[in-house]
Amino acid sequence: MLNRRHIRVKVMQSIYAMHQNNSDDLQKEEKFLLNSIENIRDLYLIMVSALVELRNSEEDFIEKSQKKHLATAQERNPNKKFINNAVLRLLAESNPLSIAMAENKIDNWTKNDDYILLLLEAVKASEVYEKYMQTTVNNYEEDRQFVTDLFTEVVAPNDKLYEYLEDHKLTWVDDIPVVNTLISKQLSQITPEGRDAFFVPKIYKDSDDKDFVRDLFRKTILNDKELAKEFLDKTPNWDTDRIAEIDSIILKMAICEFLKFPSIPVKVTINEYLEIAKEYSTPKSSIFINGILDNIIKDYQTNNKLIKTGRGLM
């Protein structure tokens, strides 16, 4: 589920939080970091289950409308294309999704069904829904495209839903785009293979990624002063306290990868942290950081300080 860049972001944010809180409890902060990453699975399940609950809510509404004493002709014979959508039904009947929901105790929409009703209103008011409901016949390819568009254009960008998620867990703010992108991709590729067609992805691609979180966090924190010395003499026109804290953390993490992660190519490290700087620091930070890292690499190469294993890692 997580790529290495997002892992780096989570580590950076945890180190920044430690600095802001003047905390030196490595074990406590590491536990918080790992928990915040594990909690991304809950966010994923909440977002996917929102689609299931939208369908369930509409089905419930239709059934109640049909039973009204003075039901209209339209209420007695409603267009059930939405609740008969093959992909929505597949999600509702998915074994992997149901098991993951139960194991992680995801019941957010049972406790907060008002958000589902608000979402359902937004769905019915959307052009995506209006166009889809022009016929009563279900076709799998159309159903899949509709659900993908519905999630991408209506559900994921919904302001009320975003506010709810942000209030529920603040650490999700930067995780939401990653999770939504993944879900959108899954929906566009889902096949009609039955109750096991939809799968819940793992948090980490493999054990190496999980180890990378802990190792990068620990090695950056435990070598803080030594890593800082590596770039202080590379900034003659800047006082130490003039360097933005985020920039300082990014530099330390990048240098940590140069020196203590021999299997990670230098170019990968530089590119990753420049992109992180563009998103999380000042407008000129990426240029500043790039200049420093470039000088450091030249110095390391001159002094044979850079040891990388494998082909093409320089």
UniProtKB/TrEMBL annotation:
<keyword id="KW-0694">RNA-binding</keyword>
<dbReference type="GO" id="GO:0006353">
    <property type="term" value="P:DNA-templated transcription termination"/>
</dbReference>
<keyword id="KW-0804">Transcription</keyword>
<dbReference type="GO" id="GO:0005829">
    <property type="term" value="C:cytosol"/>
</dbReference>
<dbReference type="InterPro" id="IPR035926">
    <property type="entry name" value="NusB-like_sf"/>
</dbReference>
<keyword id="KW-0805">Transcription regulation</keyword>
<dbReference type="GO" id="GO:0031564">
    <property type="term" value="P:transcription antitermination"/>
</dbReference>
<dbReference type="InterPro" id="IPR006027">
    <property type="entry name" value="NusB_RsmB_TIM44"/>
</dbReference>
<dbReference type="GO" id="GO:0003723">
    <property type="term" value="F:RNA binding"/>
</dbReference>
<dbReference type="Pfam" id="PF01029">
    <property type="entry name" value="NusB"/>
</dbReference>
<comment type="similarity">
    <text>Belongs to the NusB family.</text>
</comment>
<dbReference type="InterPro" id="IPR011605">
    <property type="entry name" value="NusB_fam"/>
</dbReference>
<protein>
    <submittedName>
        <fullName>Antitermination protein NusB</fullName>
    </submittedName>
</protein>
<keyword id="KW-0889">Transcription antitermination</keyword>
<feature type="domain" description="NusB/RsmB/TIM44">
    <location>
        <begin position="206"/>
        <end position="298"/>
    </location>
</feature>
